[in-house]
Amino acid sequence: MTNKVSTHWKGNMQFESDNPNGKTVLMDTTPENGGHSSGLSPKAMMLSSLAGCSGLDVVSVLDKMKVKIADFRMDAYGELTEEHPKYYHTVTLEYHFYGEDLDEKKIKRAVDLSIEKYCGVMEMFRKFANVKTSIHYHNK
């Protein structure tokens, strides 16, 4: 299967990229790099893609397990190399779950399935970065 996205220059340092489903996203850079910060940076989008991919897996598995959570958030951190081309050499993805009487065993299983089996974006990241993960439970 091949995915195709088209990315169109919108002027200055701004680009608009489409998605196979037709949605678009704006990319830009910071003023110190000639942009206006009017969109997401490409490297930040990579971290968002990682979290989104894994998050979709986790929510799907938890739904199938009939596990209830009140809220779920992921924080992704990317450490860049010093030299050009700068890329993420280490990436940390933190999973935060909120709710009452969280089923930690099932939640851990859902996260592990994403990390080890389902998340293709995470597998891509492993080709160039040390990927670290952690789970945090916030019981109310």
* CATH C-level class of the largest domain: Alpha Beta
Radius of gyration (Å): 17 Å
Question: How many β-strands, per DSSP?
Answer: 6
Mean pLDDT: 96
Looking at CATH, the homologous superfamily of the largest domain is: K homology (KH) domain
Based on helices, strands and strand pairing, what is the structural class?
alpha+beta
CATH architecture of the largest domain: 2-Layer Sandwich
Give the fraction of residues assigned to helices.
Answer: 25-40%
Number of domains: 2
Strand content: 25-35%
Oligomer: single chain
User: How would you characterize the largest beta sheet?
Assistant: 3 strands, antiparallel
> What overall geometry do the principal axes of the alpha carbons give?
globular
Protein name: OsmC family peroxiredoxin
Organism: Oceanihabitans sediminis
Pfam families: OsmC
Explain what you see:
- InterPro entries: KH_dom-like_a/b, OsmC/Ohr_fam, OsmC/Ohrsf.
- This protein has 2 domains: 1-40; 42-139, 2-Layer Sandwich (GMP Synthetase, Chain A, domain 3).
- The protein has 3 helices and 6 strands.
- It has helices spanning 42-64, 104-118, 120-125, and strands at residues 7-11, 14-18, 24-27, 71-80, 88-99, 130-139.
- A 3-stranded antiparallel sheet has the order 1-2-3, with no helix packed on it. A 3-stranded mixed sheet has the order 4-5-6, covered by helices on one side.
- Helix 1 packs across helix 2 (104-118).
- The chain is globular.
